[in-house]
Task: inverse folding
């Protein structure tokens, strides 16, 4: 049931281990294409300099679907540490301010509507959307709690009925 068109737009690193660590940040609104170009440049610059204990991290960053910022670190050579993770969080907070976006609204969630478009809503509104027949257990939702590259490939975009979102329906 996963929409192939959505998956085709997600380029993942092929040289990183399946257990590489993933952090996903969802913007509460779609990111303008011009802003996305600038944000991607900022992400590339950050990831090329991202270190832990003085060692460069093998990192990958990307913006998916004009709405999701993804960080991936292959921890087989050098793992991310508390300080390096804090650095990435501060960087994303700077990106919020710089581009007037919201990446830390944990009440916002995204789903794929019947037309195949990504919609964002508050978790508290999922039940009303289900009652109105707009979403159901088969509606694809973005599970931003994924933690590994393997999960990004297989559990990021899943039916709501198989996700933690189900408790809000």
Result:
């Amino acid at each position: 049931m996963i929409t192939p068109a959505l998956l085709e737009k997600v380029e993942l690193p092929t040289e990183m281990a399946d257990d590489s660590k993933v952090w996903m940040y969802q913007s509460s609104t779609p990111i303008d294409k011009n802003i996305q170009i600038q944000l991607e440049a900022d992400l590339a610059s950050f990831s090329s300099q991202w270190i832990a204990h003085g060692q460069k991290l093998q990192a990958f960053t990307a913006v998916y679907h004009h709405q999701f910022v993804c960080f991936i670190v292959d921890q087989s050579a050098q793992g991310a540490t508390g300080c390096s993770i804090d650095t990435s969080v501060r960087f994303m907070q700077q990106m919020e301010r710089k581009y007037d976006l919201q990446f830390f609204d944990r009440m916002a969630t995204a789903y794929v509507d019947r037309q195949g478009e990504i919609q964002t809503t508050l978790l508290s509104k999922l039940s009303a959307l289900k009652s109105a027949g707009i979403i159901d257990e088969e509606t694809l939702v973005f599970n931003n709690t994924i933690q590994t590259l393997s999960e990004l490939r297989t559990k990021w975009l899943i039916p709501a009925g198989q996700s933690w979102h189900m408790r809000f329906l």
